[in-house]
Automatic annotation (TrEMBL):
GO cellular component annotations of the record: plasma membrane
InterPro entries on file: dCache_1 (IPR033479), HAMP_dom (IPR003660)
Keyword Metal-binding in annotation: no
Pfam family, one: dCache_1
Listed PROSITE patterns: HAMP
Protein name as catalogued: HAMP domain-containing protein
Species whose genome carries this gene: Paenibacillus elgii
Length: 398
């Protein structure tokens, strides 16, 4: 290595030094900054993902709040509570007219409220085995809900408690006849003191949620889980009711965790919808960090292009500045080989130009001195020959 460097010319050494001094710090700076910005980039990717998740969270939480509003209205509105209590005590055989009248009163109050919400299906299950529903019972008998395992659990709750059922097979077709596979369901007991008046069940048509969840990126997993990690809702319908495989690695709210799935890092984020359910997002970290990585690549390309331009300019200037020195060195080599008439021809006001002028003048003086010495030697030899001839001639005279 040292021999190779020593073999380079001054111009080559300068150019090699420029390249090393430009490229080495740039690459070191790039790798060091890349190392130290990994944490910052993770925070930024997490923040971006959290902000996107909060938009979904606000929509879903708003739907759940509306469902809770309907249930609480039945519990705390005096008129509605009274209607429900009366229906639960009526005998369908002896009081058919009163039942119809009370149900009409319920229709009048609740239909106006439910009409302003997204498709919500309300079922009031009464202790006497009767029911009230805001949907047609032609395709589905609401009495089947009495047989659900969560019905008895809900009946045993206090009036301020709610049973978060989750995803249930859809029992109500849309007006256009299309039935989404699932509805999102919650239930609540309606009580007067300790006496159970009814069990109110509110279900949300999952078509709107399905559309929202399906609008997420293809690689992203977006779902709702309960406190046990069971999937309440997912755009992949077959996973509803199953346990989320990474439930034990879910981060606390406002945090994020990186998990390995099939050898690929995934960003896992959770946002609480309420004390019972949470919204979970899992997306490939590489995919989530693509926008930031793209900006960094563009920044690196711009820096690299600028570096190449600067290096080109410096190499050009170095070549232009060292060309006179190289010409001077070539001139010395030719003079050394006997071409005393060679001149560098370097002119200028800088140090190299003045060196070229002085060098050429020195060569002129040396050439003049050499010619002068040659002439003196020729004259000297001629004089010596003349003296020698003068000494020889008298001997021939005698």
């Amino acid at each position: 290595m040292r021999t190779w460097i020593e073999a380079l010319s001054l111009r080559g050494k300068l150019m090699a030094g420029i390249v090393v001094c430009l490229l080495l710090p740039s690459f070191v700076s790039f790798f060091v900054s890349n190392w130290f910005t990994q944490g910052v980039m993770k925070e930024q990717v997490t923040r971006n993902s959290q902000e996107s998740l909060k938009i979904v969270d606000q929509y879903v939480a708003n739907q759940l709040d509306r469902m809770l509003y309907i249930l609480n209205l039945l519990q705390f509105d005096p008129d509605l509570h009274l209607f429900v209590a009366e229906l639960g005590q009526m005998d369908s055989v002896r009081q058919p007219y009163e039942i119809v009248q009370t149900k009409l009163k319920l229709n009048k109050r609740l239909d106006a409220i439910l009409a302003s919400f997204d498709p919500l299906y309300l079922t009031i299950l009464l202790p006497n085995g009767d029911y009230w529903a805001n949907y047609s019972s032609f395709d589905f008998d609401p009495k089947q809900l009495f047989g659900k395992p969560w019905y008895q659990e809900t009946s045993d709750l206090a009036h301020y408690q709610t049973r978060w059922v989750g995803g249930e097979p859809n029992y109500v077709p849309n007006p256009d006849g299309v039935r989404h596979p699932y509805v999102l369901t919650i239930a609540k007991p309606i009580r007067s003191g300790d006496q159970l008046r009814a069990v109110a069940v509110v279900s949300l048509d999952a078509a709107a949620l399905q559309k929202l969840f399906s609008s997420s990126k293809k690689e992203e997993t977006l779902l709702i889980t309960d406190r046990e990690g069971r999937i309440v809702f997912d755009k992949e319908m077959e996973r509803i009711g199953t346990l989320f495989p990474f439930r034990d690695r879910l981060p606390s709210e406002g945090q994020a965790s990186l998990i390995e799935v099939d050898g690929e890092a995934n960003l896992l984020i959770a946002e609480a919808l309420n004390p019972h359910w949470q919204l979970v997002s899992m997306s490939p970290y590489k995919q989530a960090s693509k926008p930031i990585q793209a900006i960094r690549r563009i920044d690196f390309l711009i820096q690299t292009m600028c570096l190449i331009v600067f290096a080109g300019v410096l190499l050009y200037l170095t070549g232009a500045l060292t060309t006179p020195i190289r010409r001077l060195a070539q001139t010395v080599i030719r003079i050394e080989s006997g071409h005393l008439g060679e001149r560098s021809g370097i002119r200028g006001r800088d140090e190299v130009g003045r060196l070229g002028i002085v060098f050429d003048r020195m060569l002129d003086r040396i050439e003049t001195m050499v010619h002068s010495i040659i002439r003196e030697q020729e004259h000297k030899r001629k004089a010596e020959l003349a003296m020698l001839q003068a000494q020889i001639n008298p001997h021939f005279l005698f």
